[in-house]
Amino acid sequence: MELSRLGRRAFSALAGTTVLGLALGGSVSSRALPRSGARGPVPTGPPPGPPGADGRRHHIALDRYSLLVDGRRLALWSGEMHPFRLPSPSLWRDVLQKMRAYGYNAVDVRLAWNLHSPAPGKYDFTGVRDLDLFLRTAAETRMYVVLDPGPYIGADVDAGGLPGWLTAVEGAARTTDPAYLRHADDWLRRVNAIAARHQYSRGTGTVLLYRLDAPGRAGLTRLHEKIRAAGIDVPLLHADSPVARADGERTRDAAEARRVHLGHLAQGVTLHHVHTAFGGTSWGWLPAPSAPGPTYDPTAAIDEARRPTAKAAPLHQLGQLLRHVPDFTRLEEAAGVRAADDRLRVRHLANPDTGTHAYIVRNDSATAVTSTLPMGGTDVEVTVPGRDAKLFATGLHLGSGRRVAHANVQPMLSLSVGRLDVAAFVGRAGEMAHLVLDCPHEPWPTRLDEEAAWAYDHGKLHITVPLGENRLTRVRVRSGKSERTMILLFADDAASLRLWPYETPSGRVLVHGPALLRDVALDGATIRLTGDTVEECGLEVWAPHGITDVTWNGDPVATSVSRAHSLLATWPLPGVPELVLPALDGWRRREENPESRPGYDDSGWKAADRGTSTSTTPVPEGQPVLFADDYGFHYGDVWYRGRLTGAEGLETVSLSYRTGARGMLMAWLDGEPLGTHRVAGDEGRGTRTATARFRLPDDLREARRRRPDAGAGSVLSVLVRRTQHAQDDYRAARGLASAAFEGAAPKVAWRIMGAAAPDPVRGPLNHGGLFGERHGWHLPGYDDGDWEAVSLPHRGRRRQGVTWYRTTFRLDVPPDVDASVGLVVGDGPGRGVRAQVFLNGWNMGEHAGDGPGEPHTFVLPNGILRTRAAVNTLALAVLSDGEAESGLGTVRLELLAGAAGGVPVEPVASPGRRR
């Protein structure tokens, strides 16, 4: 829980000033202070409204407390989403709408240079790489954008996002080397030409902040000048920025997410960064060696299948609090407070403008701790679960002269809806919530749900509510001294995920019930709601005065006015209808790897005969350069064929190779398999090195002894898998490194072959160098009519090498249903099976199980997956090690999630094989 390279003491020294210099690069000036010209910090007040491409100029500034947008304080609650990890542009809108509904007001966007650039000077910003479309969609969903174009982004991406071709050109990346800077400048120039059109400062988009990847101070100054010259005038963030911005860190579960992000709040952070808001898929050859598999972050609040996880609730609650309660945009350290039990660590902060006090209490022990905590002059009993944290507040205004005296539950939101003041408080299911309000005039509370109880004593209203599982409890408070009625809501984590505040030009709205609220429009006396339902559920709406009618996804909803002054649906909203997925049958199978045969024509392959390499890996003495990158093969599998002369008496072949995670090597001599080898261990920088030592089988040596020409023209064929590049050593060699022999000292003439030309639609990371990939076996439209018909699971003969399986299937999902579908791939008959999965020609990733019973589920993004009665082509390239029968285990479709609602999905271009 560290701030961005700035000590708290140094940061506090900036109090009351506007931060200038490189961090903001001139885009911030005194003109961004309040129009009154008042000196000193900007006071706490209403935040700016939701952003959009509104055509008006906006001033963006920063003081010691927070961002200032048009002179108003903004607490940034930003979640990271990588558009490249969702290769279906229609679904970008779905995820952005979900992020906004779950409380985020900004999206952190990293761009992967390698996905856009297949070769020096060649760039593609179309299709799944359409940055302009993503930024337009962010503006349409009213989300700020924090843009991070790299060039280096990390993010468990191959080489940290640096393109593969950069390994084979002059210049050291992430330095001030002029050769590297020419390429980096070219990349940023292309990005900036798009980003400049979407800046919030100009009113043409919602790009609010721009992150820099700069090598040192000199590089920072140079990059700053380049970016400003390119028309980027929003604030710039970098490693040395004087900005209290929370470093993103991955959290495992809901409790850890609370500890981390409440800890950031305790340090005064108002530029919050949730490491992974949406998990996504590292499809193709995108993942770096540090990535465990195609699933990027299974613990993200919105997972790979676009479903909320357990972490969604605490992040939703905190995001809504920062968005709707401005008190937390200006906090200063207050007098120290200690709990009676020292196992609880307390941080006390206060807002000098509003008098709100925040108490952030953390429990690092393994068990729940109940203790008293002095808050607002009262010792309050609180309970904090083990390895968890809670936020309590005192002095918080809830409207109509009412303030929180103290509470043992966390505020989630406080807003005015029409003539109502609505406040929500959250805790864990099974807890007894206790809220005490300062009420200067005797209130008239009404229990709207049976669980609540209340008592009024000496100017304080005590309300107690047992928090039930997924249950919302309502209490109404009136007073003869105020025309405004207060509605108090109490919810556990599950119920909080059905509370949806929304800001419209005509006022705020609060909706309770559905699984998701996407959009709200006020049309005369009608409120039009758009969203998702999963199960049959109720609908309750608090809306501005004058709203009498409700529609849900275009259909009218009969309602009545409840005692909570809400519009309450008479009948439940329908859930998602049952969906039935087809069985996968009609499989066809074909073996490949003709490259292993001695008579295979490799005359079109590149000669691997270079004497020097651009790699940081030394070339083994006496060997030619065999590293794949030096010959232009950067992703996927790589084949080598070595013609041996003078190999009479050969007994042993030793092959040294270097890969990323889960690398493997297969070797054949004169078409006979020598064996399969897998890497183990790690050099510590994402590179695995290994030497495969193969002793020629007795029958092969005997056959060679009987041949008079044995050794005169032998062919050694080698397949190396997983040439992924480390994030922190992108030039480390990949592929075969050297060969050594025992029993003979042959001369070897090597040739190498990898991936064919990059796919013009799917990009350079979609396919590798397998024979089937080079000849389009993974593409729709390939004629597999002469392949062998098989059923799964399938057991083939014991064989080392590659076997392909193909089939087609159709789905018929109703147009008003969003179905998230997965492909479950089991292992084959034995250990060591690797399966590369292609859907409509798109590489969905690799399944690399270590034994039977370890299936993997590949999420199939709608758009690439045709869900509306169209044909889908599924192809799997299966690598078998030869130690057991080759084949493929179970492969089936699985419904991961379904919702009535969703967004319109356009098919993603998936060109087939040209006939």
TrEMBL record:
The keyword Glycoprotein applies. InterPro entries: Betagal_dom2, Betagal_dom2_sf, BetaGal_dom3, BetaGal_dom3_sf, BetaGal_jelly_roll_dom, Galactose-bd-like_sf, GH, Gly_Hdrlase_35_cat. This is beta-galactosidase. The lineage of its organism: Bacteria, Bacillati, Actinomycetota, Actinomycetes, Kitasatosporales. Belongs to the glycosyl hydrolase 35 family. It catalyses: Hydrolysis of terminal non-reducing beta-D-galactose residues in beta-D-galactosides. It comes from the Bacteria. One of its GO terms (molecular function) is beta-galactosidase activity. PANTHER family: BETA-GALACTOSIDASE RELATED. Pfam families: BetaGal_ABD2 (PF13364), BetaGal_dom3 (PF13363), Glyco_hydro_35 (PF01301).
